[in-house]
Amino acid sequence: MGFYQRRIVPCLTHLAMSQKQLLPFRRHVVGAAEGRVLEIGVGSGMNFPLYGRSAASVIGLEPSPELLRMARARARSAPLPVTLLDASAEAIPLEAGSFDTVVTTWTLCTIPDALRALSEMRRVLKPGGALLFVEHGRAPEAGVARWQDRLDPLWSRLAGGCHLNRKMDDLLTAAGFSIEALANPRLPGPRTHTYLYEGRARPA
Q1: Full-prediction pTM beyond 0.85?
Q2: Residue 7 clears pLDDT 80, i.e. is over it
Q3: 125-136 and 196-203 as β-strands: parallel, antiparallel, unpaired?
Q4: Coil, helix or strand for 84?
Q5: CB atoms inside a 10 Å sphere around CB 161
Q6: Integer Cα distance of 155 and 152 in angstroms
Q7: How many CB atoms lie within 10 A of CB 200?
Q8: Is 185 left (phi over 0), alpha (psi -120 to 50) or beta?
Q9: Which of 60, 93, 103, 136 sees the fewest Cβ atoms within 10 Å?
């Protein structure tokens, strides 16, 4: 891993994820978590203050050492117990059926094998457990989607593996989830980057 990926990308990720326009989506998704929670890709830990009283504890995964360092500082002041693991969602080092809720916020775009990661999330959820998510991804307009496909190879290299063109609802279904709720709001900004998938899914 080069200097850019190791040092610059985590800082850029932190800045991008600190945008105020993302906060209402974070609050809605994270605030709905219940029981024992697994958060995928905690980044610098911006979600920790947003967990409500229904969440008992959080185990957070983060493969970036630099982001994990930032997250540890935030975990100390979180309103609930937080345990952080240096681990990838593609191979979650935790027991099957051990979580009530899995949370992912703007994370699936960067995981190299998102389908494998989602299958792992399904594995660790209890029967009836919920995956709560907000992600950006493939837009429904054909012209916008074509531009996402054109831009994706360069964007992915610049943005630490982030992909613009993943159709998140199809990935969820392919991984064995049943989508209970799904909204597709747009953020202000380039249409190639701002189409969201926000919702809740359960193991089918």
Answers
A1: yes
A2: no
A3: antiparallel
A4: strand
A5: 14
A6: 5
A7: 17
A8: beta
A9: 93
Q: Which residues of 50-62 are buried (b: 16+ CB within 10 A; e: fewer)?
A: bbeeebeebbbbb
3: pLDDT strictly greater than 70: no
| Other Cβ atoms within 10 Å of 66 Cβ, number | 17
**Residue whose entry in the numeric block shows the structure tokens 């935030």:** 74
- How many other C-beta atoms are found inside a 10 Å radius of the C-beta of residue 123? 17
Judge contact between 172 and 102, C-beta under 8 A: no
Q: Retrieve residue 33's tokens.
A: 């978590």
User: Residue for token digits 């709560």?
Assistant: 132
Question: Which positions ≥6 away from 82 have C-beta within 8 Å?
Answer: 45, 48, 57, 58, 59, 60, 75
The CA R_g of the chain, rounded to the nearest whole Å, is 16
- 135, 120, 88, 166 alpha-carbon torsion, rounded to 10°: -30
